[in-house]
Each structure stands twice: as C-alpha cells, then as structure tokens.
Amino acid sequence: MEPEARDRLLTEIFNSCRPRALRYLKGAFPRLADEAEDILQDAWLEIYSRRAEMELDPPRKLENYILSLVRSRAIDRLREFERRIFRSWQTSSPADSQAHDPEPVEARTPLPSSQVAERERRAKQGLLLSEVLTEFCRWCEKRPQRLAIKETFERSLRGQSPGDIAAAMGVAPASVYQWLHQAREWVRRRVMEKDVDRSVFLTLYGGKATGGT
Amino acid sequence: MARDKASKEPHLKTLGDVVRWVVDELGAMCPAPERLQAYNQRPNDPALRDVRYHVEEAQCRICNAERERWKASSQPG
C-alpha cells in the first residue's frame, strides 16, 4: 500500500475508534474526563510517529492497541498526580516536615548544587504507592496460595474489618490476621528496599498516616 | 489552564485518602489483564475468586470498563 493510502487508512481507523476511546476513558477514569480529548490527541501523535510499524489489518487489532495506549496514558497522568502529592508532602510546611523528616535540621540548610541534583534524581526515581501495590498483586498472582492474601488485603484497604473479611471469605479470623500481616510485611519490605527518596516510606511509616494499611 | 489542571488533582490529606485513591482511581489492586480475561471466560473458577471480589463486589471501574471494551470488540461487525 502506498504511504499516503496507509496514512489515510490509519486516520480513518483512529477516527472510527475515537468515540469508543472517549467513552472508555470517561468510564474508567472519570477524573480525567475533561482531559480525554488531550489524552486521545497524545495517543494519536504517538501512533502517527510510529505509523510505519502499525499493523492496519485487521482494523480491530489497531483499535485494541489504541484503547490500550489511551489506558496507559491515562494511568501515567494519574501517577503524575500521585508523584506530585508525595513531593508536596515532603516539602510541606516546616512543622509538617519536622514531623515526617528524620533528617537533622542542619541537613535542611541550603544545599550545594550537587546535592540539589541528587535530590532531583531521587525525586524522579521515587517509588509510588500505586506501583508498590501493583507489584504486590503480581507477586500474589504468581502462586495460587497467595491469592487469598491479595483478596484479604484488598478488602482491608477498602475498609472491611478482619471479622467482616473472615465472614465474607468463609475463613477463620486467625487466617485473615495472618494474611494481613503477610501483606503488610511484604509492602513494608518492598518500600524499605526500593523507596529511594523515602517518600512512600515516610508517608506510610512517618506519621502522615491516619488510616488505610 | 494550569489552574484547570490543578483543580482536577485529588486533595489527599492522609494515607487513608491516598490508599483509597490509588485503589479506586489508579487501579493499584487490579488483577493482571490475563486473569481478568480468564474471569470473563470462567467467572465461577475458584482460582479467580479474588478477581470476582474485585470486579463484582468492589466494582472496579477500570476493570469493568475494560470488560465492556472486550465485550464490544468481540461482537461481530
């Protein structure tokens, strides 16, 4: 197929998929409803820049790819919110940062440029809570016996009490306590290993918490 | 424009807020796509009961939108 004809077909497929992609974005990510057009536009630019490698036949394959791409870009945007929230907590009011920042006062004096650069680098690498929980799910899904830990932990994160969880899952409360302990311990260890700038660690264990895990 | 974007950011004050937000809106506890697909095909499979909870009881919006999309794309035409 001639490049111009390919471009026309690509544009046609994308445009025919547009209403479905918008509906999907607004349904799955209502917070981003006003940005749905933007996200779709970014996805189009990404697809167009890689048009030579796009398979156009059958069109449904490309449509599925477009929808997967907009989902990823929507999650990227939400993760950017999450990153900003953690950063803002790290640099919040002096009283607040004293409560959560274990560094000595002298460490908070103006930093030489190398230290500023290091902080920037670390901030970019900072672990997000959503990433820790996603990794936790993949860990659970590797072994069938861990699936109960996943379900228990999700129920707990959504506000169910251990007693209610035990009743809903038809297991002894002791099992629920044990699974919750395993889940929390996994998350704690993961955060300690990977949280380079300690943003999640400080949030989870530094006193910012008032609920949840 | 910047103000518009800022207004869409969630206002999260506590860890509990963050946990609820990442679970509800970021899909942090969503099953792997292949397990969600498997659930579509075998909703009564005991090995997928965590997915059933996630989709049916917790009513994850992201997974349900995904299921809708699969359903639409599997229809002929």
Distance from first to last alpha carbon of chain B: 40 Å
Strand segment count of chain A: 0
The biggest beta sheet of chain A is recorded as: none
Of all protein chain pairs, which has the greatest interface, and how many residues does each chain bring to it?
Answer: A-B, 49 and 40 residues
The Rg value of chain B, from CA coordinates, equals 16 Å
| Whole-number total of structural domains of chain B | 1
Strand content of chain B: under 5%
What does the average pLDDT of chain B come to?
Answer: 87
H-E string of chain B: HHHHH
Shape of chain A: extended
Structural shape of chain B: flat
- DSSP helical segment count of chain B: 5
What does this structure look like?
- The complex is a heterodimer of chains A (213) and B (77).
- Chain A has helices spanning 3-28, 36-49, 59-90, 94-100, 113-125, 129-141, 147-157, 162-169, 173-194, 199-205.
- Chain A is mainly α.
- In chain A, helix 8 (162-169) packs across helix 9 (173-194).
- The longest helix of chain A is centred in the middle third of the chain and has 32 residues, at 59-90.
- Chain A is extended.
- The termini of chain A are far apart.
- By secondary structure, chain B is an all-alpha fold.
- Chain B has one domain (12-74).
- Chain B is 64% helix and 0% strand.
